[in-house]
TrEMBL record:
Residues 20-448 form the DUF112 domain. Keywords: Membrane, Transmembrane, Transmembrane helix. The keyword Aminoacyl-tRNA synthetase does not apply. This is DUF112 domain-containing protein. The keyword Heme does not apply. The chain crosses the membrane at residues 20-48, 60-82, 115-136, 148-164, 170-188, 200-221, 363-388, 400-421, 472-494. Pfam families: TctA.
């Protein structure tokens, strides 16, 4: 209770105009970086890290928290408006957000995303404030075998969710895992599948895969369509009619989604966030599939169902609160952004650990207050102020829009990796995924396989090493057995008891 009191008292720091300015500026910068394909909130925080040296630690941590929250919700802007997720965690948002935008409901889709982000971010921050020590202890109960089973569970459910397209989804996931094996072996310092190219020794970076799979392939898809001037003019006239109240979801739509969806997805995202390395992508994947599983209209997902947006955005924003738990209590970053925040703490002589919440709670409380403030106030406020400008993206000429996106994507890839070779990799991945999309392969499963592949392999080999090669260890370890049973339950409900008529993740091949 004493720590909660400190957090509540820390809101008074936001009354200082200078502190409030840094928090708002951090949120806007994080939103811009998250919305531009190839640029992420992690990159924004890394580039702005030197500026924290000139700030006092409290203000620097509050700015970092606002950038973090903005990075999770900002990726939904381009995911909804042009079907190019600005961040990996926004992939699931694009599945239903872009179809809504094509129906002329782009403002409503952004409104649902903002509302869900606000709810998920607020719940995640509140849970972090209240339950951080307890959740941290629980997450430590998941050992090596359990971590493998968790990752396997994530891949299996996203594949079987492709009802009617499971084989292609499995192939796409395997291709993603294969791409992740390029480079140094996870256990032994031996290069694999480099084909004699020294540049591949370090492996394929995540950023080129994201940019290639979504930005480059989308540009290729759009370039294959005949653009018509009257369509552009029609879109421009529709944009002119957008009013700020159009971004407010009607109460009837919110009731149809249901409070359970928001809360359940937020809890899933928070729980996933407490697991180091899981990140917003897995949280949004799991919450989306869970919402489809429990929906009375599963066939509507992937076609513009607001519940899909609500589930994905609630989860990936609540991850913010969960990911800070292992970082603050054990010094284990939950994702790349918290790794940078950890660096800010260490640089300033603060060592995260079990005693941090008690001995130096006065330094941490303002950061958590800024996290909650960003979710509760800044997310809806920036949408109401800047929302019409987000929608105006569609009024830009297609050749100018996608040419600019191509340039920003390639430049962003270079800025993220400082490698011209990785830029070429992005182009290769873009062509590959373009061909796959034309053949009906779901690209989301490819990216999931690539993201989870390295940890999946590492935990599998470690578990088998510890058990002397005995696979029975995956059903004898309680934490692993839990996820094995959970996988079986999802397979039963998604594939056996109530098979869906249409794929959950409807790949937008002709968008």
């Amino acid at each position: 209770m004493e720590f909660i009191g400190l957090v509540l008292g820390s809101f008074s720091l936001l009354l200082d105009p200078a502190t409030l300015l840094y928090v708002i500026a951090g949120f806007l910068i994080g939103t811009v970086f998250a919305a531009i394909p190839g640029l992420t909130a992690t990159l924004a925080l890394a580039l702005l890290l030197p500026l924290t040296y000139s700030l006092d630690l409290t203000t620097a941590l509050m700015a970092c928290a606002s950038i973090y929250m903005a990075g999770m919700c900002g990726g939904s802007i381009t995911a909804i408006t042009i079907n190019i997720p600005g961040a990996p965690s926004s992939m699931m948002t694009a599945l239903d957000g872009y179809p809504m935008h094509q129906r002329g409901e782009g403002a409503l889709a952004l409104g649902h995303a903002s509302l869900a982000s606000m709810i998920g971010g607020s719940i995640g921050a509140l849970l972090l404030i209240c339950l951080a020590p307890f959740i941290a202890q629980a997450s430590l109960l998941i050992q090596t075998t359990g971590k493998f089973s968790l990752l396997f569970f994530a891949i299996v459910i996203i594949v079987i969710a492709q009802r009617g397209n499971v084989l292609k989804a499995a192939v796409a996931a395997c291709i993603g895992i294969m791409l992740a094996t390029v480079g140094l072996d996870a256990m032994v310092p031996v290069p694999r599948f480099t084909f004699g190219l020294a540049e591949l020794t370090a492996g394929i970076d995540l950023m080129p895969v994201i940019i290639g799979a979504f930005a480059i392939s989308e540009i290729l898809v759009q370039s294959g369509k005949l653009s018509q001037t009257h369509d552009i003019e029609k879109q421009a006239r529709a944009v002119a009619k957008i009013r700020r109240r159009d971004f407010i979801p009607p109460l009837s739509s919110i009731r149809k989604i249901g409070l359970v969806c928001y809360v359940k997805s937020s809890l899933i995202g928070y729980a996933i966030g407490t697991l180091p390395g899981a990140g917003g992508s897995m949280g949004s994947f799991l919450s989306y599939v869970e919402e489809v599983r429990t929906s009375k209209e599963p066939e509507t997902f992937g076609k513009g169902n607001p519940a899909g947006i609500a589930a994905a955005e609630s989860a990936n924003n609540s991850v913010c609160g969960g990911a800070l738990v292992p970082m603050l209590t054990f010094g284990i970053p939950g994702d790349p952004i918290t790794a940078i925040v950890l660096g800010v703490l260490v640089i300033n002589g603060i060592q995260p650990g079990p005693q941090l919440m008690t001995d130096q709670a006065g330094l941490i409380a303002p950061m958590l207050a800024a996290l909650l403030f960003s979710a509760l106030v800044l997310i809806p406020l920036t949408l109401m102020i800047l929302g019409p400008y987000y929608i105006r993206i569609v009024s830009i000429r297609k050749d100018v829009l996608y040419g600019t996106i191509a340039m920003l994507s390639v430049v962003g890839c270079y800025v993220a990796t400082y490698s011209t070779f990785q830029m070429m990799v992005a182009l290769f991945i873009g062509v590959l995924t373009y061909v796959m999309r034309k053949q009906g392969f779901p690209i989301a499963t490819l990216l999931l396989g690539f993201i989870l592949g390295p940890n999946l392999e590492e935990f599998l080999r470690r578990a088998l090493t510890l058990s002397n090669g005995n696979p029975i260890t995956f059903v004898t370890s309680p934490d692993s057995l839990f996820f094995v049973v959970l996988t079986a339950v999802f397979v039963y409900f998604l594939s056996i008891r109530a098979p869906m008529k249409n794929p959950v993740i409807a790949e937008q091949n002709d968008n």
